[in-house]
Amino acid sequence: MDCLVCHDTTGTYKKAPPGAGMPAKDVDLKFVAQNVGHSSRASCGSCHFNGGGGDAIKHADLSRQLLTPDRNCDVHMGGYDFSCAECHKTRNHKIAGRSSSVPASEGAVSCRDCHSDTPHYCGSLLDHHLNKHCKTIDCNTCHSPVYAKCKPTKTWWDWSKAGDKKRKPKKDKYGQPDYHWKKGEFKWKESPKPTYAWYDGYMERVLMGQKVDIHAPVINLTDPVGSIKDPSSKITPFKIMKGVQAVDAENDYFLIPHLFPRNKEDKTAYWKNLDWEKAFTDGMQAVNLDYSGTFKWVETWMYWRLEHEVMPANMALSCVQCHESLKEEKTCNRCHQDNRDVDFKAIAQKGTDFSFMMSKGRDVSHLKDTTDYIDFKALGYEGDPIIHGGRFKKLPMGYGDKMPRE
Ligand code: HEC
Ligand code: HEC
Ligand code: HEC
Ligand code: HEC
Ligand code: HEC
Ligand code: HEC
Ligand code: HEC
């Protein structure tokens, strides 16, 4: 990467789309060079907001909205005006932060670097349980209960439908198109609930040229590693990018098409000639892999971790939003003695206010009053851990339902 793309402060530096990373011809390089400075959300975002070829397409939690975000959209970058490098600390230009997709890594970044393993210390009656939950639950499971809340993100991308120049794209309820002849069919989501999975810090990834089971109903291009039995795994929120892509039907690996025309004479680029055979032949040649000549469309899923868009503390999930067992009259007093000065019911319910989010125009009406935010059974529990016990132990005092006092 060149220096200016990260150190430009003028906002005039840009790259030419087919230029393989070279600056666009009309950039005044002298002016840009005379105005270099610290990296910023704008300079890092000039690439990262556009992963997948446009704003908020691939990364649900990185979009142009983060240039001037609302506090409720991202409390660090909005509320406290963090730059990217504030969290992605660099040393000798090694930028810390593991990616979900590519295995290169220059160090990890974690909420715990700044907030410690026991971040809840404000003296509230919830601190004890919240800090204990941090051993099992990733911070953003509670602190970022919906993703793409500032801008809709693409969640379905079917390449097999591309090529129909006559098909008129329709706009969905967020104003996003459902089709583009170059790229195929799309679906978008705004403020959906994440998918939750156990994650120990590692991802399985399908790399270029790697054999896959092309007859499987779905091929996971990235897949979190983790298990309920592993003490270092935590329940972590993900966006799953689903789609349809092409594999080589004989070599059993993914095909790389040549898309963007190199020049006017280009006869193989898909976006010029709309011929997959030619595009795959050329693309695979460019990456030095054999193409058998027959291809097949397969469904792919890609797990993307949600690391940004942390909401203000008062919008974290409440006890009741996960624990159905605390919904009725008995809440904390299932296990603790009643105290005249404490309204247990109120504090058990203090958390994400979906009505407030609705009033700001977010598409979250279906999440209001829900008490099953993370599906305990799908994660390997027998049911609500307050009733059935946690992953390594049951509470010593018997279970909520069968309290001696009842
Ligand atoms: C991928 C983005 C990126 C690229 C490319 C990049 N830098 Fe940096 N650079 C950073 C970040 C992040 C820092 C940490 C301070 C900051 O946020 O600006 C930094 C810091 C620096 C500093 C130290 C500034 C200080 O205050 O201590 C210098 C000097 C520097 N870069 C020069 C360069 C040069 C010269 C190049 C090209 C050879 C380059 N950088 C390419 C991101 C980048
Ligand atoms: C409040 C802290 C914070 C800020 C601010 C922040 N990030 Fe991150 N980012 C993280 C954490 C934590 C991770 C997870 C990294 C890890 O596991 O090592 C991450 C991961 C990433 C990843 C990898 C995503 C993936 O799953 O593949 C990218 C890319 C990234 N950040 C870019 C940015 C950019 C660009 C900005 C500024 C617009 C930014 N970040 C601002 C905390 C932050
Ligand atoms: C010129 C485009 C560009 C710019 C500018 C840029 N990045 Fe990246 N960055 C990439 C690409 C490409 C990757 C690897 C592919 C991916 O993760 O999607 C990457 C990977 C990352 C990762 C994952 C790290 C890893 O080892 O896999 C992080 C974190 C990240 N960038 C943060 C930043 C930050 C912070 C800045 C600003 C200081 C920045 N990037 C500026 C293009 C860019
Ligand atoms: C580079 C350090 C740094 C990293 C990394 C970081 N934070 Fe923060 N965070 C801060 C600072 C500083 C504040 C503001 C002061 C405070 O409340 O402690 C803050 C505030 C917060 C708040 C309270 C916001 C409010 O005012 O209501 C929450 C919640 C939070 N962070 C969660 C997270 C989560 C979740 C992550 C990981 C995705 C994370 N932080 C990563 C430094 C960091
Ligand atoms: C089980 C849900 C849950 C988990 C997991 C969780 N938090 Fe919190 N967090 C909350 C709630 C709820 C509040 C508001 C507490 C209150 O108002 O008493 C909060 C408050 C905070 C605050 C504001 C300071 C304070 O003491 O109120 C910070 C900072 C914070 N969390 C950071 C984190 C970080 C970092 C992690 C991961 C290491 C994390 N949280 C994990 C639910 C959670
Ligand atoms: C994001 C969902 C979520 C939220 C929010 C949440 N919990 Fe839990 N809770 C869990 C999970 C998962 C376990 C099981 C932990 C384990 O396997 O050890 C658990 C276990 C428990 C247990 C029994 C295990 C033990 O030893 O502590 C209690 C008691 C409990 N939670 C109370 C609370 C209270 C009080 C709150 C609000 C401050 C709360 N929970 C908020 C998911 C949640
Ligand atoms: C299913 C039983 C259960 C429920 C429900 C429960 N707790 Fe607890 N709580 C415990 C147990 C057991 C402990 C003792 C320490 C431990 O094992 O975590 C504890 C410890 C605490 C502590 C720390 C006490 C100390 O002396 O340090 C506080 C404060 C607390 N709980 C508050 C609450 C609040 C507030 C709620 C409701 C929002 C609640 N608890 C719901 C079982 C429960």
Order of helices and strands: HHHHHEEHHHEEEEEEEHHEHHHH
Spans of at least 5 consecutive residues whose pLDDT stays below 50 are 397-406
Q: What would the principal axes of the Cα set say about the shape?
A: globular
* Arithmetic mean pLDDT: 93
Helical fraction equals 10-25%
Index terms:
single chain; disordered C terminus; 14 helices; 406 residues; binds heme C
Question: How would you sum up this structure, described in words?
Answer:
This is Octaheme c-type cytochrome, tetrathionate reductase family. InterPro entries: Multihaem_cyt_sf, Octahem_Cyt_c. Pfam families: Cytochrome_cB. The protein has 406 residues and is α+β, with helices and mostly antiparallel strands. The protein has helices at 4-7, 29-33, 41-48, 75-79, 84-87, 111-115, 127-133, 139-143, 270-273, 276-286, 319-322, 344-348, 354-359, 385-388, and strands at residues 90-91, 94-95, 153-158, 179-180, 184-189, 195-199, 203-205, 219-224, 234-248, 295-305. It starts with a helix and ends in an 18-residue tail after the last helix. The relative contact order is 0.11. 19% of the residues lie in helices and 14% in strands. The model is unreliable at 397-406 (pLDDT under 50). A hairpin with a 3-residue loop joins β4 and β5. It has 14 helices and 10 strands. Strands 3, 4, 5, 6, 7, 8, 9 and 10 form an 8-stranded mixed sheet that branches. The protein has a domain at 318-351 and 375-402. The chain binds heme C (7 copies). Residues 111-112, 115, 119-122, 124, 126, 130, 133-134, 137, 139, 141-143, 313, 316-317, 351 line the site of one heme C (HEC).
